[in-house]
Amino acid sequence: MPPPSQYHPSAPPDSPDDSDSELDLDIEELDPTTDSGPQANQPKNTERRAPRIALRTLRMGGLRRGANRNGYGELGRSRAAGEEDAEALLRDDDGNNPRYSDASAGGRDDAPLLSEHGGGSGPRRRRRSFATDTLRVGRLRLPSFMSGTSADHGKNDEEEEEKEEDDPSSSRLVAVGSRQTIRFPPNSISNAKYTAWSFLPVTLYNEFSFFFNMYFLLVALSQIIPALRIGYLSTYIAPLAFVLVITLGKEAYDDLERRRRDNEANSELYTVLQFDEPGVGGASMRTRKTLKSSHVRKGSKRAIPQGDRLSDIREEEEQTEADGSHRFASSYVTEISKKSKDLKVGDVLKLSKGHRVPADVIVLKCLSNEAAAHQEEQEEPVPKEESLLVDHPADPGQGSSKDAEPITAGGAAEGSSNGETFIRTDQLDGETDWKLRLASPLSQNLPIEELVRLRVTAGKPDRKVNEFTGTLELLPTRQDAVTTNTFGNGDEQAKAAPLSIDNTAWANTVIASHATTLAVVIYSGPQTRSALSTSPSRSKTGLLEYEINSLTKILCVLTLALSIILVAAEGFGNTKTDVWYIKIMKFLVLFSTIVPISLRVNLDMGKSVYSWFIQRDPGIPGAVVRTSTIPEDLGRIEYLLSDKTGTLTQNDMEMKKIHVGTVSYANDAMDEVATYVRQGFHLTPSLNQVGNPPLATPSSSSAAGVGVGATRTRREIGSRVRDVVMALALCHNVTPTTEEEDGRMINSYQASSPDEIAIVKWTESVGLKLSYRDRKSIVLESTEMGRTAVKVRILDIFPFTSEGKRMGIVVQFYETLHANTPNLNEGEIWFYQKGADTVMTSIVAANDWLDEETANMAREGLRTLVVGRKRLSTAEYQEFSARYKEASLAISGRDAGVQAVVSRYLEHDLELLGVTGVEDKLQRDVKPSLELLRNAGIKIWMLTGDKVETARCVGVSSKLVARGQYIHTVEKLRRKDSAQEHIDFLRSKPDSCLLIDGESLGLFLTHYRTEFISVAVKLPTVVACRCSPTQKAEVAKLIKEYTKKRVCCIGDGGNDVSMIQAADVGVGIVGKEGRQASLAADFSIEQFCHLTKLLVWHGRNSYKRSAKLAHIAVDFEPLGLYKDWLMVGYATIYTAAPVLSLVLDKDVDENLANLYPELYKELTEGRSLSYRTFFVWVFVSIYQGCLIQGLSQVLTEVDSPRMVAVSYTVLVLNELLMVAVEITTWHWVMVVSIVGTFLVFVGSVPFLGGILIWGSCWRWAFIGGLRRFWP
Q1: In 163-228, which ranges are continuous DSSP H helix?
Q2: Does 861 score more than 60 pLDDT?
Q3: 713 marked ligand binding residue
Q4: Are strands 637-642 and 1046-1051 parallel, antiparallel or unpaired?
Q5: CA 985/CA 120 separation, integer angstroms
Q6: Is the pLDDT assigned to residue 678 strictly greater than 60?
Q7: What's the mean pLDDT in 347-352?
Q8: When you count CB atoms within 10 A of the terminal residue's CB, does the N or C end of the chain come out lower?
Q9: How far apart are CA 771 and CA 792, in angstroms?
Q10: 392 pLDDT above the threshold of 50
Q11: Known binder of ligand: residue 1030?
């Protein structure tokens, strides 16, 4: 395919050289490839032109020969099949068929007859040589039937498998819209812990890494040895196998649920542009939507007149040359839908507002829907004529099929949009400000069909979300983009543009602009920024498991000691059948029942019940348990690490308060502000101004009265209110937009900062609406009168920076609505500025109320902005402008020079207009939830990627920082000696709140890791801002390692996944735009306030109930005496149901647990299952075991069935009584379990004939009574 960019018209359309009525054509244009060097494509000098021939003669000669295309209408339908086949063989290496070359241009009526390279778009006078056809840019290309890279869709699956594997450590070349020569990883999300191959090995290793399970495995294997065999092998193997099946089944179910939810995220549909070869893709995709640019759409089909149609050849050629556009489109574009997991590197995505970006992409084009509609309205009616070069609609390859629906938003807007789009990154880095992203001018100004000629050079996958360096190249053909050949700088056919972070949108960000964004995938799946910042899923084990494992070791030591004592009592004597160490081993096997394997069964089933309760709690709607092995840890949390954006806050700003020096307005008082604004901007035109009404300026608005009879004080206040409202309506970077919602047009705003949007919305609510904004002007409209009230010309704008903490704008006011653009001598020139009080205090004029009022708002948790203004004379502004321009052109020290000029001429003695207070709306019931958790003894840390000021305000407004609590701020720390000073200060003030940024945190973690964490864990509150996802996870791990306490992390964004997975308990909140955190978490909830019930209520119940199950299971009973069915019955039908019913027990009421959160502190100390309580239960069990066995032998004969019957009956009944005594709150299921088990036992006595004897009732009643006697 000839590259359109290679065409250079030899002379302008109005050149006298082209005035010949015969439309002369350069001979060299017929065969330009005679010179294979770069100069072959250079425009020829008009004064040294080659001989020309008549274009009409050439065209009509072709028509007479019958070698015309079908697009010639009635004249060209007798195409010779032989020449058709010959031209098909000699087509270019990009696979274009000459028959469809006009279709590739979208059916434009201005399409030229011949390519400057003879690429095969029209009839040829002679057949060119193969070498001449294929020699291009100094290298040989093969025809499509011999080339391996000619057509994207000609590759089969075998070719796909032969692709070279991607090397993550090297940079990559990505051909836009084409298949890549290197295989990249799939774009799928996976939070699964296991694969089909790793499930059994990993789960079995995890299970048998616990001494508890390994002990029973060794006991079961010992029964294979004849000398150690005591009972049936199945008696020992079956319980262990049952426990493993239960545990592995739970793990498998949890992992399958993760995979199912991952599949939901991976199945999210996205619109992808498919670039087919011209004349190939359209035939097979008629039902798909065809995406065409305005470059193509101008040539829509029209009726062909039957008369002489050659009179407009001159006009067509002039239009083509005047366009300077490419003669033939490089591709045929259609829209298809793809699942997120099916996206590949190189795919071009079509994204709209609210779409989550599924992979790391480079922004190629931003298409404004409004611009598209405006352009279509102004398009002139299309004439009825059609060029000879327009093919009939019968050829679907031309993109004109009736079944293919054109996409008007894409093409009409290209060239009308400035290539800007906004994205939200709160799911990636936690920052609330929107980020401006730009399309490279190289791709923004390119027709959509030509995007396939682009190639992106990107670096290796990296986790740095704020850095990117790459290159965008525009190559002559699509095949050049697919190949890995590089083009030198001297090759004018290849153009390149740099790419930076401003041209990217990483995975899990959200498109915030109304414009349509076209972006190409460059990193997918595990190579995206968010995936590289996320640690892999790991299996989590609860603290209770470790505690029971430790207690099991103690029980084993006790049984070993008991076995040695019994053997020692016989003097370690040997017999013919046994030696002394064999006897010890047999005793160990006999006493193995002291460590009951049923404990694992009860605990695992209990965990399932706890998970069931959590998921069906009406107080926590939407709760999901994804890791059912750690519910007890919910009751042991001592540190809570929380994200801010989307977790504690809604990321929705609202203007709450404004202070104008003497009066403060908030809530209902805003109605008075609206009254002042309505009166201040109500300008009545005079008779000679009816057609050109006056506009408000700072001078006119201050002179306007607020009503007849108003006092001087009210007039002054009204004037101040109008001035500050006007300043807020002008000093910003907000752009008004219109979007359709439910069939209605909704006005909205977009900007990088949600604070500014909140302020502009507030000015609209009080009567002054931002109706229009571009780079040169701002128009404000009175909402009451519905007409323009203020119009300004933007002279200079100084955007907000994190270092400057302020933004300013210089504007010139229009005095009348229809006035021409004023020069500097006409209209008032004002400088407006707003910023943080810390920097604005020294800029505004001296006053006595600013510090006090900003402090009051800060205590309320409001984000304060100080607003000021200054009037500039024409001379002052001209002097400033000259110095500013001079400083901006400096090579070195440019930023400092520019800031010095602004400070000198503008930023001093500003008139203080007022102070605004903006609130970041909190999630529902955040304040009481944080207070309750703090009273429960949980230390709360807030880790966010947002700014320091934002974190401070949210910490105060959410009551995370107590009223009057000192906030120690550590920001931009770079010296190690200063870090040590901060640590020493915090040691001396342990009741303060630490506010630290990510840079300083990184310094502490690098050089003073232990010292910092030892001080920080003792503070009541820590707020860390500007934290990367890796830093969040590192903080969680450090707290775990240093304190050995349970840490819970909660978040809602993709940037919180690493922190959630690093925590002992990870809780994810289902966010508005993303589910990454909830999918990777152990527990998923919908609101932060649900966390209190999850911890204080469900965590308490889970831990308390499991502790009781562990106590009941400790039993020093001689179960080795009961063989066969007695032993199986005791472990199953006679005790299982009553013991398991303890999972329904409640030691306190839910309301009481919420009323007294201090009860939670007992759980964190682990008193319910401590070494003290454990040894108490061991002693009780030994006492009762000795009493049962001793009295059974005294009251009956030793080794007689009667003794077994008495002891076994007492054992079962006593177990039921112990369960009943341990119950705090009775449930009907408990009653049924205990009574039902007793009836089952009584009913089974006849089936155990000879073993249980009713005649011994008085004996087991007597022994049972003594057993229950325990002080």
Answers
A1: 199-208, 211-222
A2: yes
A3: no
A4: parallel
A5: 80
A6: yes
A7: 93
A8: C
A9: 12
A10: no
A11: no
Q: 752-777 pLDDT, tens per residue?
A: 788 889 999 999 999 899 999 888 89
Does the annotation place 1055 within a ligand binding site? Answer: yes
Q: Which residues are catalytic?
A: 643
Q: Is 163 annotated for ligand binding?
A: no
CA distance 895 to 912: 26
Phi, psi of 796 (to 5 degrees): -150, 150
DSSP states along 553-565: HHHHHHHHHHHHH
945 annotated among ligand-binding-site residues: yes
CB 444 within 8 A of CB 365: yes
**Residue 559 among known ligand-binding residues:** no
* Residue 22 to residue 24: CA distance in whole angstroms: 6
- Spatial neighbors of 655 by CB under 8 A, at least 6 apart, are 758, 759, 761, 762, 916, 917, 918, 919
Whether the pTM exceeds 0.85: the reply is no
H/E stretch holding 175 reads: strand 172-175
Question: Tokens representing 954?
Answer: 């949210």
275 has which bridge partners?
333
Q: What is the DSSP letter of 925?
A: T
Name every residue whose Cβ is closer than 8 Å to that of residue 210 and which is 6 or more positions away in sequence.
545, 549
863 among annotated binding-site residues: yes
By the 10 Å C-beta count (0-12 exposed, 13-18 middle, 19+ buried), 983 is classed as: middle
Indicate whether 424 pLDDT > 80: yes
Flag whether 604 is marked binding.
no
Alpha-carbon gap, residue 986 to 344, rounded angstroms:
51
356 DSSP 8-state letter: B
180 close to 346: Cβ distance less than 8 angstroms: yes
Amino acid at 1147: D
From the list 642, 531, 427, the residue with the least C-alpha distance to 191 is 531
Angstrom distances, CA of residue 225 to CA of 214, 572, 581: 17, 21, 14
Q: Determine how β-strand 454-458 pairs with β-strand 164-165.
A: unpaired
Which residues are bridge partners to 272 per DSSP? 336, 349
Q: Give the Cα separation of 493 and 474 in Å (integer).
A: 8
Element (H, E) at 519: strand 516-523
So what's the pLDDT on residue 298? 41
From CA 554, how far away is CA 594, in angstroms rounded? 11
Nearest alpha carbon to residue 926 among 1088, 684, 775, 1152? 1088
Residue-level pLDDT at 1269: 52
Q: 136 labelled as ligand-binding?
A: no
pLDDT digits (tens, 9 = 90+) for 426-473: 777 767 678 889 899 899 989 998 899 999 999 889 888 888 989 999
Write out pLDDT tens, residues 814-853: 888 877 777 888 888 999 999 988 889 899 988 888 888 8
Q: Is 834 annotated as a binding residue?
A: yes
Whether the CB-CB separation of 790 and 729 falls below 8 Å is answered with yes
Three-state secondary structure string covering 46-102: HHHCCCEEEHHHHHHHHHHHCCCCHHHHHHHCCCCHHHHHHHHHCCCCCCCCHHHHH
Residue 643, annotated as binding a ligand: yes
Strand pairing class (164-165; 182-183):
parallel
* Alpha-helical regions (H) of 331-449: 369-378, 408-411, 441-444
**What is residue 626's DSSP assignment?**
S
Q: CA 725, CA 233: separation in Å to the nearest integer?
A: 87
Would you list the DSSP string of 234-264? HHHHHHHHHHHHHHHHHHHHHHHHHHHHHHH
Closest by CA to 552, choosing from 1003, 217, 102, is 217
Q: What is the pLDDT of residue 121?
A: 37
**Residue 99 to residue 93: CA distance in whole angstroms:** 15
Q: What does the angle CA 321 – CA 456 – CA 293 come to, to the nearest 5 degrees?
A: 40
| Secondary structure letter of residue 525 according to DSSP | G
CB 625 within 8 A of CB 614: yes
Tell whether 62 is in a known binding site.
no
